[in-house]
Amino acid sequence: MQKRNVQFISTAKLPCSLQTLQTRDQFDSSAYAAKNIIKRDFAIIGGGAVGTYAAISLADQNKTFTLVEVTDQLGGHTKTFQDPTTGATVDYGVQLHLNCSIVRDVFARSRSPLAALEPSSYGNPEYYDFTKQVALTNYKPGSIQSDCATALNNYPYLEDLKHNLSSGSTQGGLSWPATPGNPLDTTALAIFNDGNNVELEDFEGAAVHGANNDNSEIYVNALAELKSNVFPQFSIIAAKRALTCKSGVQLLIIARPPILDDTKYFGLDQQEHAILSKLSGKNYYGGVMNNTGLEEGIAYTNAGADTQYHVASLPSVAEVEDATRSTIKWLQTENNFTALEPNFVDYQDFSPFHLSPPTEDIADGWYGKMKDLQGHRDTWYISSLLVIGSTQVWNSTHTCFRILSALLSLSAFAGWAIDIQKPLPRRVVPVYVLHSCIA
Ligand SMILES: Cc1cc2nc3c(=O)[nH]c(=O)nc-3n(C[C@H](O)[C@H](O)[C@H](O)COP(=O)(O)OP(=O)(O)OC[C@H]3O[C@@H](n4cnc5c(N)ncnc54)[C@H](O)[C@@H]3O)c2cc1C
After folding, report:
1. Cβ atoms 394, 76 nearer than 8 A
2. Phi/psi of residue 167, nearest 5 degrees
3. Is the Cβ atom of 275 under 6 angstroms away from ligand 1?
4. Does 321 or 163 have the greater pLDDT score?
5. 295 and 207, same structural domain?
6. How many CB atoms lie within 10 A of CB 365?
């Protein structure tokens, strides 16, 4: 078998003019100082649930790799706020996992304890129309019925787009907590993908979470363990594939939303551009507030007073934070609570979430085309593009890695390179090139 060889080359000492050239996808790896070259077999872009899982898997297989993450921590959508005075933690991104073997393995590997998560821990729901500012005292939310599970079990449900679900299932599916935006504008595919069998089991009491109320613990531990292979606060500024070798299979692993803005440095060919340019995500925000004056143990929940299926109206993107504050103040008045000034102690923009192509492209076979893109020009996509939840993305990454391992034993790698740099503003901007080729 031919030897694989991936190199990182630091260009921190290159003149500015050359750095500008790098961003035009024309870098010459021989121009980089040899002492800054780092050799790796794999590169993973994005250190969320998927990228971290991939990195740990590679470490366990004694493969060399590097993980490029644009923020200063691993975990992606997993966000945990820690109260600086009490030390108490609260997860406000990923809340729960399914109690299945892959989840237990991930937490055991990290030596992080798991605990059962009772649905009641989210609080007792009370319903209000936040936009119209009315309490919905008699409102009974719909809940998913067995007909929804039956429809899910008919997978692939795309073959028959007619779903005559009961009104309970329709209303329950449309008010699924993780469906961003107006669910009435969302495809049945997205609703089913989000409210899938795995999620239904979760809500029947099969859910677990970090026992320390800290789902980020596995990522903090992973960063400590993998530190020398992780480039936090770096992003790609240029890439070049099939640099010096004949085309073959090579492993650039994209573990983050492959939207066009973020993939433009990969020198996309027509096929890649045609497929990825169709993708867009929805806006999704989360945060932690104090000084709310609201009652503990109550889940204050937004629903439409007179909209179809009681679908909740949402504020515009620019209004999210202000609308949250003013809604809480209205809830204080409505419930005769003490008037306090609510304050965000943590806030996160989770966009783009629920990536999808337009409906007509789905009908035109977009998902099949995306599947065909796997491995094309040596690039693999393992982000939460085809499945949504962490349990599912870990499962699909596990399967993907089995395929990649088989390919590794059969194939040689062609050359590819990426330049990465710390996001501005910084006075000194180290830039790296990753260069992979068959030695
Ligand atoms: C608010 C919220 C709550 C959720 N709750 C649950 C839940 O309870 N249970 C569940 O199973 N799933 C939940 N999900 C879904 C869950 O987020 C996904 O299953 C999982 O996080 C997907 O992992 P990922 O690695 O594909 O993406 P992400 O977690 O988004 O990770 C992508 C990573 O790529 C990095 N990145 C982005 N751009 C670049 C770049 N240019 N260069 C380098 N790095 C980059 C990001 O910083 C991030 O770390 C939730 C999602 C959200 C938004």
Report:
1. no
2. -65, -35
3. no
4. 321
5. yes
6. 11
Q: What is the number of the ligand 1 atom nearest to the C-alpha of 71? A: 47
Q: State the Cα–Cα distance between residues 106 and 418, nearest whole angstrom.
A: 29
The residue count of the chain comes to 439
Encoding tokens for residue 218? Answer: 């596995």
CATH code at 72? 3.50.50.60
Q: Which residues pair with 114 in a beta bridge?
A: 210
**DSSP-derived secondary structure letter, 313:** P
Token readout for 399 is 């399967």
Alpha carbon distance 373, 359 (integer Å): 19
Both 120 and 236 in one domain: the answer is no
304 lines ligand 1 (CB under 6 A): no
Which residue range(s) make up the domain with 69? Answer: 4-78+219-280+354-438
Q: Tens digits of per-residue pLDDT, 247-284?
A: 333 456 777 788 887 777 777 889 999 999 999 888 88
**Residue 332 CB neighbour total at 10 angstroms:** 17
| Closest atom of ligand 1 to CA, residue 48 | 31
Residues 141 and 192 grouped into a single domain? yes
DSSP assignments along 193-236, one per residue: HHT-HHHHHIIIIIEEEETTS-TTHHHHHHHHHHGGGEEET-EE
Residue type, 58: L
Taking 90 as the threshold, does the pLDDT of residue 306 lie above it? yes
Looking at the CA of residue 262, tell me the nearest atom of ligand 1: 41
Here the tokens at position 189 are 């595919």
pTM confidence score: 0.87
Distance 219 CA to ligand 1 centre (A): 12
Number of domain units in the chain = 2
Q: Assign 306 to helix, strand or coil.
A: coil
- Residue 352 CB less than 6 A away from ligand 1: no
Q: What is the largest CA-CA distance in the chain?
A: 74
